[in-house]
Amino acid sequence: MEIVQRPHRDNLVRWAEQRPEVLVLSADLTSSCEADGFRDAYPERFFSMGMAEQNMMGFAAGLAREGFFPYVHTFAVFVSRRPFDQVAMSIAYPNLPVRLIGFLPGITTPGGVTHQAVDDIGLMRLLPNMTVLECGDATEVEQVLDLAQAVPGPVYVRMLRGEVPRLFDPAEPMVLGRARLLGEGEDLIVLSSGICTEEALRATGALRAHGLSVGHLHVSTLKPFDDPRVRAALASARLGVITLENHSIVGGLGSAVAELMAERGIGARLIRLGLRDTYAHGASRQYLMREYGLDAMALVRAAERLVGEPLGIDEDALAAVRLETMGRAERTEDL
Amino acid sequence: MESIPARPGAATAPGDIRRVATAIRRRVLEHTLENNGGYLSQACSSAEILATLYLGVMRLGPSTAPPTPRPFAGVPGADNPHAFTGADYNGAPAPELDRFIFSPVHYALVLYSLLIELGRLGPDALDAFNRDGSTVELIGAEHSPGHEVTAGSLGQALSQAGGIALARRLRGDTGRVWVFMSDGEFQEGQTWEAFAALAHHRLGNIGVYVDANAQQCDGPMDTVMTTEPLAARLRAFGAEVREVDGHDPVALAEAGEGVGEDGVPRVVIARTDPCRGIDRLRERWPKLHYVRFKNEAEFNLYRGLLAGLSEGDA
């Protein structure tokens, strides 16, 4: 599988070249949020706002009121927690087209509890007018700006940085409000988001090899959450539904699925995998994904609970699942 | 009284500004009596500041909004094309004209009363004050007459005004951005973040008038949380600061001259008296933030004051 180095950095420069109305605001995390390329290429459109996120949100709101499109770059925790009132009142209430680009989602950082956004999707989903997007691979990192820019109101983007795998063929575009169908099946329905989709692909591969029919959708639009394909898949689940996300199970993908199933009267069992109403701590991504049950093995264990018997899938079986970028030839046909 | 339309660049005699300020106090007292409560001391402290801004400082076009305030049209959102702001009472935006951002929105009745005196709102506009479904709210919102941004969470408007000022500089506008603030907002950390950013980005096209009445909800500011020496603090943050008598229209207007001619944000600290024009309020000190009359005798007392509050009293 292809690993792309810092896909946002170059993409932002390329994408913004013919968009003079696009500005970038940064709070002392410019290189850390891969906005340094933009800063160097278009210094007149880059504004350093210092470590002062509340004020930065107000400035972004004022710029957006005047017809500019501010792309606020900082860590996800500093978008969602510290300036929550400013995001709610200065940006979301007036439905202003500010784009909040939040880096270091969930346990992707060893920076510990202060740096780990485990509640950002929940907080942003709470806000009326806010659209919530999450990137799961390099292709989505490269395409999410087009999606965000097409939304007339505020958008929160849960972004990836650094070494990002390419799971999806760039010819298969990311579409607002539409999940990617990664596999069809009806015994189990798996919905995954963000970095957890790579883990889910390993697990679903092993589960299918074991003879289970597993439907798998990758969700990149967390709000609005009204994709008819997701509804149809959920309704088809024979043994149950499993969600896997790099976030608290409160407020994120698992909550969105639970709300949808309850409101639609979809009476299947649901297992929400993610941080179980807990904070995390500083350690490696791999270690934390194992510790908190966000990895492929956690999904296998959840499948066993729904199937009602051990499946005998071990670490070696998961490691043996070979992941490739999902191209046109391999993709599953649309429902 | 006869309305005084603000004309861009036209100077208004200080006597006219005083007359408008007195009319504001009278109207706010009248509605405080009608509602049995209101932000009366804020009218006493800020009447000359706001009147001077509209009549002697800001370059605004004529109102393009209806004299009778529009009813609430729903919160802004993708599915609501009818949402609006109250900025059109301050005229249509134009590159050479100024903008007004009203931060302490519990002063809303003061602003509504001023807009009526200026003919920007109709004489009966306050019939809708504090009524369900109205935009003439007790605590103003961005749809309220004369308001442009959501500012009720104090300390947020200055940052939004900074963004507007930055956008105007990027566009090459010559108009300025004026912000009216209360001194209590200088207890919010965001206010200081905003001043740091205004100075760092050399946003000299912004001018801030502060009603320094030294009062807040819990009482005198120096017993709640000291912000003095405010002028020295602001100067240390890179602002050009003028301290003036906030009831002197001449001094208030002079303090705003030259804004937009350099890269330094301007702050006018208007030292004010929260009982100015209604002396009997002093007996309520230090509980001045929201005035509610206790009994019929007090009602009658203030009704009598209303009758006596005539032009020139201030």
Features:
heterodimer, A: 335 residues, alpha/beta, Rossmann fold, 2 domains, seven-stranded mixed β-sheet, five-stranded mixed β-sheet, 13 helices, 36% helix, globular, B: 314 residues, five-stranded parallel β-sheet, two-stranded antiparallel sheet, 9 helices, 34% helix, 11% strand, Transketolase (chain B), Transketolase_N (chain B), THDP-binding (chain B), thiamine pyrophosphate (chain B), thiamine pyrophosphate (chain A)
How many beta-strand segments of chain B? Answer: 7
N-to-C order of helices and strands of chain B: HHEHHEHEEEHHEHEH
Overall pLDDT confidence of chain A? 96
Label the CATH architecture of the largest domain in chain A: 3-Layer(aba) Sandwich
| Strand content bin of chain A | 15-25%
The outline of chain A comes out as globular
Describe the sheet with the most strands of chain A: 7 strands, mixed
In CATH, what is the class of chain B?
Answer: Alpha Beta
Domain Transketolase-like pyrimidine-binding (chain A): 2-166
Pfam family, one (chain A): Transket_pyr
Cofactor (chain A): thiamine diphosphate
Protein name (chain A): Transketolase
Describe the structure.
- The complex is a heterodimer of chains A (335) and B (314).
- In chain A, 36% of the residues lie in helices and 20% in strands.
- Chain A has 335 residues and is α/β, with parallel strands linked by helices.
- Chain A has two domains: 157 residues, 3-Layer(aba) Sandwich (Rossmann fold), CATH 3.40.50; 140 residues, Rossmann fold (3-Layer(aba) Sandwich), CATH 3.40.50.920.
- In chain A, the strands form three sheets. A seven-stranded mixed sheet of chain A has the order 3-2-4-5-7-6-12, with helices on both faces.
- In chain A, strand 13, helix 10 and strand 14 form a beta-alpha-beta unit.
- Chain A starts with a strand and ends in a 16-residue tail after the last helix.
- With 314 residues, chain B is an alpha/beta fold.
- Helices cover 34% and strands 11% of the residues of chain B.
- In chain B, strand 4 and strand 5 form a beta hairpin.
- Chain B has one domain: Thiamin diphosphate (ThDP)-binding fold, Pyr/PP domains (Rossmann fold).
- Chain B is globular and about 55 Å long.
- A five-stranded parallel sheet of chain B has the order 1-2-3-7-6, sandwiched between helices. A two-stranded antiparallel sheet of chain B has the order 4-5.
- At the A-B interface, helix 3 and helix 5 of A face helix 4 and helix 5 of B.
- Chain B: InterPro entries: THDP-binding (IPR029061), Transketolase_N (IPR005474).
